[in-house]
Amino acid sequence: MAQPKTKAEAVAVDAVKQVETLAGVGKGTMESALKAGTKHYEQAVQMTNEQVQKASDSFFKGYDELNALSKDNYEALVKSGTIVAKAVEDLGKDWISFTQSSVEQGVAAMQALFGAKTLREFVELQNDWARKSFDAAVSETTKLSERSVKTANEAIEPIQARMNVTVERMFKQSAA
Asked: Where are the beta strands (DSSP E) in the chain?
């Protein structure tokens, strides 16, 4: 560059140099700002992706746990229903057997009553048959009631166990 001839040219040359220096500084600042902005943007995108991944993993884990819980609950209901169905079948068989036995005893008692020779014998036979029938009915009803209670307790066990597991999980999730 040629030497300035006048003071005005020297000031102009200085002004141009200062503008060029400022432009260089501005360019550097802009480049630094762009680099920093890009870096922060990339970090924000990465953090967002991580949060979305965590939320997604948590959702699917919860879904899998809910699915397993539902399956186990269904299996408990099936087990409970099987216990009840078997008990009802057994109780039905026992009741039919009791009824058949009662009818047979009733027929035998009627034959004995028709064979009575005196009124006193008739009354004694009838009282004996009525007492035995009543005692057998009370005994059978008591036995059926006890078995019904036992069956109800056995049938509720799988459901109660699942309820305990469910409540336990709810408390663990609430505590977390």
From this structure: none
Q: Is the pTM of this model over 0.70?
A: no
As for how many domains the chain has, the answer is: 1
For residue 102, the enclosing domain spans: 7-175
Q: Which residues of the chain have a pLDDT value below 50?
A: none
Q: What amino acid occupies position 146?
A: E
| Helix or strand (DSSP H, E) at 130 | helix 119-175
Residue 88 inside a domain? The answer is: yes
Calculate ∠ Cα 121-127-130, nearest 5°: 140
Angle between helices 7-114 and 119-175 (to 10 degrees): 170
Residues composing the chain: 176
- The per-residue pLDDT for 127 is 93
Whether 1 maps to a domain, the answer reads no
